[in-house]
Amino acid sequence: MKPLFCVVGTTGVGKSSLAVKLAQALSGHIINGDSMQVYKGLDIITNKPDAQEQSMAPHHLFDFIDPSKEYSVSEYLKDALNVIHDLHKDSQIPIVVGGTNYYIQSLLWNSKIIETADSPGLSNKLKLRDSCHPSLEPEIADTLFYLLDHTDPRTNKPDAITEFSKTAPFHETLCKIDPVMGKRWHPRDIRKIRRSLEIYYTTGKRHSAHIEEQKSNESSSKLRFPTCVFWLYGEPTELYPRLDARVDLMIEKGMFQEMKEMRDKMKANQVVGLDSQYTRGVLQAIGLLWVTIGFKEFDSYLNSLDQGIDSPDLLKTGIDEMKRGTRQYARRQVTWIKNKLAPECLIEHENGTGAFYLIDATAADAMTDELVDKVVELAKSFLLSNENSPPSLLGPNISSLLEQPVQGDDWDQYICHECVSPDGKPKLLNGPKEYEVHMNSSTHKKSVKRNKNAEKYLEWKNKQKQ
């Protein structure tokens, strides 16, 4: 048996601490599963394991990519699998810890990412024109090249891409080529639409066909290794104040100095992706995750400092926005684990091919010696291939998190006629879950109230005319 352990959960819930204790008990090695922590620098903002933590257990794939380099999920998968295979050869236990969903999912299961369609110019040496699949008809090839070329974030500025996308037939082209993905993506989600077009352009096969093949492929639903996953969960009412306090602590530790050093590198053109505003390299990690709040929302404050002006108002605004962004990111992580990761892990748990445990880490002092001992006991039992315990054994009060998400076709689109998008059209929602969240949102309720008041006013006005 060549096992793999994985510790997942929201930011600030204590994943690293548990992983270290688990590694000490099992003589294991910790492997990074966070897209930000692979890059050098930004130690405080990305909350990398400090020197003391790293001295307590061997750590891999942390702090090894220069900010001037690109690093894709395919490269991570290759590097992580190499580390795991080397550890297994030496009869060592790998423990993956992190919260980047596409890293974790691609590593745990076979064929969770499309590896056959690299972005031209990124991990592929071919230029865009030379990457066209020979099976495509010249007319459609020219159309795709035109759309992809004018929206490439590596050669076009964000404002130019936005303006181009307003008039270019992006969604219309995708609907003709791949109606399934056209139905799935929102007409204004240019990044996702572009990726679907790019996959067709480089492989000659529809994006939806790749996905269906992965689903039908028996190996795509199997874990790469017998895997035991621990999900650390914290109730928002207690977790969020801890996240706010952690932002304050980061500032005390020197977060602004890190930002200044990274800004200096950006000005010196030593950081890849500067021209695409947080969409590539280390800035891609910053842009996709909550660190973007640190850079984007503090930008005005840091600019004022450059001019010799220390504005308390700009500082307070940046801090408030960073805390808000951190909480939002934590909510997105829970949504992904609950709706995507947990259901698949529970199937593996029931089949005996893996194990999945939900741990209540709500309290700041939740990781007691007693709880850690229980986690270690479950881990050792998994290594011995004993019968799995109930998934919510350590958190019976939060077992409702393991209930199945809203059923329905995730690709179905729903229309809310009460709410209006920025383009003046009725708001589109992708999938039943997004629709349910929107219908219960304060924004939707305000729209309904506003529309009713408008109707009453029109009725009154018409009566006055009569």
Plain-language structure description:
The protein is of the alpha/beta class. The protein has three domains: 4-109 and 222-402, P-loop containing nucleotide triphosphate hydrolases (Rossmann fold, 3-Layer(aba) Sandwich), CATH 3.40.50; 129-219, Histone, subunit A (Orthogonal Bundle); 413-465, Double Stranded RNA Binding Domain (2-Layer Sandwich). Helix content is 53%, strand content 10%. The protein has 19 helices and eight strands. The chain is globular. 33% of the residues are buried.
Brief characterization of the structure:
The protein is α/β, with parallel strands linked by helices. It has helices spanning 15-26, 51-56, 73-89, 101-108, 138-149, 158-167, 170-177, 179-184, 190-203, 207-216, 236-253, 255-267, 281-288, 291-297, 299-306, 312-351, 369-383, 431-439, 442-465, and strands spanning 4-9, 28-32, 59-60, 93-97, 227-233, 354-360, 413-420, 426-430.
Secondary structure tally, helices: 19
The H-level CATH homologous superfamily of the largest domain, spelled out, is: P-loop containing nucleotide triphosphate hydrolases
Q: Major β-sheet, in short? A: 6 strands, parallel
Helix content: 40-55%
- Tell me the distance between the termini: 84 Å
Structural class: alpha/beta
According to CATH, the fold-level topology of the largest domain is Rossmann fold
In total, the number of strands is 8
Radius of gyration: 24 Å
The CATH architecture of the largest domain:
3-Layer(aba) Sandwich
Q: Order of helices and strands, N to C?
A: EHEHEHEHHHHHHHEHHHHHHEHEEHH
Region (Disordered): 438-466
Biased composition (Basic and acidic residues): 452-466
Keywords: ATP-binding, Nucleotide-binding, Transferase
Pfam families: IPPT
